[in-house]
Amino acid sequence: MTIEPRKRPKQDRSLIMVQRILDAARNLLSNDSVHGLTTTAIAERAGLSVGSLYQYFPNKEAIVLELARRWLAAFRPIPLEYADKDAPRYWSEFSRDFRAFTRAIAALYKENQDLLATIEALQSHPELRRIADEHDRTIIDTHTKWLLKVSPAIEASTARRLGILLLETGHICFAEALTRGHSSYELVVEDVIIMHEALLRTRLKLPD
Fold first, then answer.
1. How far apart, in whole angstroms, are the C-alpha atoms of residue 195 and residue 50?
2. How many domains does the structure of the chain reveal?
3. Taking the C-alpha atoms of 107, 113, 115 and 118 in order, what is their torsion angle to the nearest 10 degrees?
4. In whole angstroms, how far apart are CA 19 and each of 15, 48, 53, 116?
């Protein structure tokens, strides 16, 4: 079963129709979770016939994939940008950059919180899970290279383990705070920064 879109829209009318489909799917995911997501429900929410939907997407998985690509594309440039920075010489420089990095990630979570349910939906199909796993590996690899550049003395396995922790704990904390309507999101972000810095301080050999 293919999960790729049938065709990419080029004309304005087609672009608008595809956006209606994606908006409808995102709305359904946000309100009903993946269990209420069907092509019929998406078409009804978009005000289209199922036949019109099938012109662009062969199934609901292809729609979830397109939503996921938008989510993943928004996040990937941030770690890549910081990986290209010059390695800090002092902890104060690292802390400044790390705080800016974490806040940039947290801001994207908040701006795209209506896509959070898409992450759950990625677990509904083996091919979607593979795409999500590939994205996570890319981000973890970027973290690993960045940490090794910051502190070449640490082992690659340690840097990778730290990269996994940065990705997983950050995602859980930000996603849960937004999904549960936490009233102090900025406090959660600050807590994540403090937690991560406390861990990294013990591993990265940087002078004050």
1. 48
2. 2
3. 110
4. 6, 12, 11, 18
Q: What is the pLDDT along the chain (208 residues), one digit of tens a residue?
A: 566 666 666 666 778 889 999 999 988 887 766 667 889 999 999 999 999 899 889 888 888 888 888 877 887 788 888 778 888 999 999 999 999 999 999 998 888 887 777 777 777 677 778 878 888 888 899 899 999 999 999 999 999 999 999 999 999 999 889 887 767 899 999 999 999 999 999 999 899 8
Q: Answer yes or no: do 196 and 95 share one domain.
A: yes
Task: Give pairs for 14-20: CB < 8 Å, separation 24+.
Answer: 14/56, 17/48, 17/52, 17/56, 18/56, 20/46, 20/47, 20/48
30 contacts 113 by C-beta, under 8 angstroms: no
What is the rounded CA–CA span in Å between residue 143 and residue 38? 37
* Judgement on whether residues 101 and 173 belong to the same structural domain of the protein: yes
What's the pTM?
0.79
HSE on the CB side for 131, CA within 13 Å?
24
